[in-house]
Model the fold of this input.
Amino acid sequence: MVVGDFPIETDTIVIGAGPGGYVAAIRAAQLGQKVTIVEKGSLGGVCLNVGCIPSKALIAASHRYENAKHSDDLGIKAENVTIDFTKVQEWKAGVVKKLTSGVEGLLKGNKVDIVRGEAYFVDDHSIRVMDENSAQTYTFKNAIIATGSRPIELPSFKYSKRVIDSTGALSLDEIPNKLIVIGGGYVGTELGTAYANLGSEVTILEGADDILSGFEKQMTALVKRNLKKKNVEIVTKAMAKGVEETENGVKVTFDAKGEEKTIEADYVLVTVGRKPNTDELGLEQVGVKMTERGVIEVDKQCRTSVSSIYAIGDIVPGPPLAHKASYEGKIAAEAISGQPSEIDYLGIPAVVFSEPELATVGYTEAQAKEEGLDITAAKFPFAANGRALALNNTDGFVKLVTRKEDGLVIGAQIAGPSASDMISELGLAIEAGMTAEDIAMTIHAHPTLGEITMEAAEVALGTPIHIVK
Done:
């Protein structure tokens, strides 16, 4: 049965209910708009269902297991530590369910209409939403596209039972004895580390000169050192050529340093990037400009080349980060409401939940120098912090990049425990236009890891207390 001859009117329609879409819908509703959100899958999108949240749950479980086996230095010995992976997966699923049901409650609480189905643009003020049984037309004043991205599939590594993407890696019903990871970016490194902690023999094949190419060498060196301790083999400048799949495993062929090699494993995880979900929305027929890769061009208010259509998240330029999508969702909703909000990416952090964790915000030292800025780069080590020593976790440092003329904080990098949490203070410092002196004069509780940020600021000022200048 086909229904839908009578269009349903709404002010703003949001396509996709991931961390960009549902945030945009809620903010638009808060600003007085009548909002409809369309989702063909689960509320929360990739991030909540098969990305950020379940991966961090798995990483947390792997840390607990690793710590249970290796706390001898603290006088704690545990014998015959075992892991029930089925229970781990059930716990992870429970975390996801709590959050996705929470998203539904937030949308309903803000009076956002939730519609299930796939959306297709008819023109610049109407879409068609289809499911298996029906089709319905919706007319809108403005639309926000937040359809996210999907893993890139290599032609020679078609996804199957043994050739898996990140979603497959998070839903395995067993811990692999051997795992090959193609791609040493943040997803490959995080999941490779998690399975290494759980006991897998992991090999990472990376085509570039180094893993985690977006981060400074002095940061990635710490991650590589820890991976080596876990017996993870990292092969750089490696070009994966093909895979032979058997009932119980895979054989992967790759080139490294001019030599062809073959390696066997239970599974091969392919994490070589993501592709924007813009190819089945009918955007071409309404005139939305896109790059050859399907990335949508937008202005500083997330407006596309069609004035009534906005786009946010993985489908627009920039890194595929959930918090970037949420930020852009708020900007788009505010712009539609007539506010002068514009995107400013300087204060957006990037984080890798590796060991140690890595986090960066604003300029790196190298980027600042490339811009011709006269800067000071000030570092303070975790090893000189009492809380880090008490945690028995002293790898890493905090680095501040400040403008030499006035001490303005323009960038920061953290490698170490809780870097993902600590980076927020430095993002705030950049957003608020704070100086190294402002941070140094802020009283930080003792003993905490946050003190390292204060100490790094004092290094920038030339007056460190807990290291000798």
Observations:
- The chain has a mean pLDDT of 97.
